[in-house]
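Worked problem 6 (solution included).
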Amino acid sequence: MAYVILGTCEKDDVCATACPDDAISHGTVDVDGVTYDQYFIDPDKCNECGTCESMCPTGSIMLDLDLTDKEKPYQKVNAAFFAQ
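Solution. The predicted structure is:
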């Protein structure tokens, strides 16, 4: 399990600053022909503490188990950023 940043991310660095595990990074990644420019959570570093979720001003961070079917592709997007 890990937290996931959705496409509604407004690139506010408060989540990255608050993360105790330095699991959040900003950048771009192309997945399935779409370029995402946002913050991403490394699923291997995330300790599921929830600090990022509580600090996000747009509610763009969710635990992967809570994602709707429409939001689930963002798991792939976040993982792809750290796989590149």
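Discussion: The domain at 3-83 is CATH 3.30.70.20 (Alpha-Beta Plaits).
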